[in-house]
Amino acid sequence: MHNGTTITQFIIEDQRRIEKATGDFTSLLNDIVTACKVISNLVNHGALVGVLGAAGTENVQGEDQKKLDVISNEVFLKSNEWAGHLAAMASEEMEDIYAIPKQYPRGKYLLVFDPLDGSSNIDVNVSVGTIFSILRCPEECKSPTAADFMQAGTEQVCAGYALYGPSSMMVLTTGNGVNGFTLDQNVGEFVLTHPHMTIPEDCQEFAINASNMRFWEKPLKRYVDECLAGKEGPREKDFNMRWIASMVAEVHRILTRGGVFMYPLDSKMKSKGLGGKLRLMYEASPMSLIVEQAGGMSSTGRERILDIKPTGLHQRVPVILGSRNEILRIDDYHR
Ligand code: AHG
Ligand code: MN
Ligand code: MN
Predict the structure, then answer these.
(1) Is residue 273 exposed (0-12), middle (13-18) or buried (19+ Cβ within 10 Å)?
(2) What is the model's pLDDT at position 83?
(3) For the chain, where do the domains classified as CATH 3.30.540.10 start and end?
């Protein structure tokens, strides 16, 4: 039996510090937490409840959807549409924004999410997650459009992820540090287990999909080559490498023991007219806020990700994030 701070208690106490907080935000976060618990339960039961495998459909980005991509999206919409805190939602799995159905009241927040991140890992029983970002709806947000979502990452009111791994966790920031909560399956509550998560400034571990090496730009190639050269190379130390193919799990590792995660822009993407692999609004931006709040850095190699003003819901950007001194070095190589 746990005796710690539940996520609900934590959020309420966090909001008490803010003058004029109406309770709207606290209640919205609670609905998000509920959605993540439902997804966690589905992921845990996997084949027992028939949720593995392909959905047989494609999303707006031309990616094959898994059954759990579609189901998790639906869970998020249903958990968050009714309470009156949101003006609209947007997700990886929907081309356009999702307007709040007429029968429900509208609120002042916008919710953007990647309902299931790392979905190539679902069928092989490897960690997946959910990423979300909360924005304030601009003034006069009576009938919101995609344009209302086009806010730089610095404008986020809250960013978080749920990680469905050996244990399920929720990691959150409201711009005042990063805290991690572990789901007690028996009680059904996320409990504060990782207060004030911080990323060490230095590290000896990097993550990149090295199968794309031949397409990388020179600065990135140089950085990875130097890491691979180890003790005998210019860095004079050995580096370890990891690639889980779930950004959530990758960022969680970095929050736990430091490291660098890179999904750079490469010539293959460029030739397809893409700006990168990962999506700004529901992958790069929320993860960048979490990483920065934990003392790390996040960049495209050329600019701070949180400063980018989005031009589309599904815009893609290069992502290079993690331990501060490594990101400074990679940025430097790009100059
Ligand atoms: P999603 O499952 O939401 O489409 O995201 C997958 C992302 C990210 O989580 C991961 O880092 C990356 O794509 C993996 O890409 P590769 O398969 O190219 O390694
Ligand atoms: Mn994703
Ligand atoms: Mn996804």
Answers:
(1) exposed
(2) 96
(3) 7-194
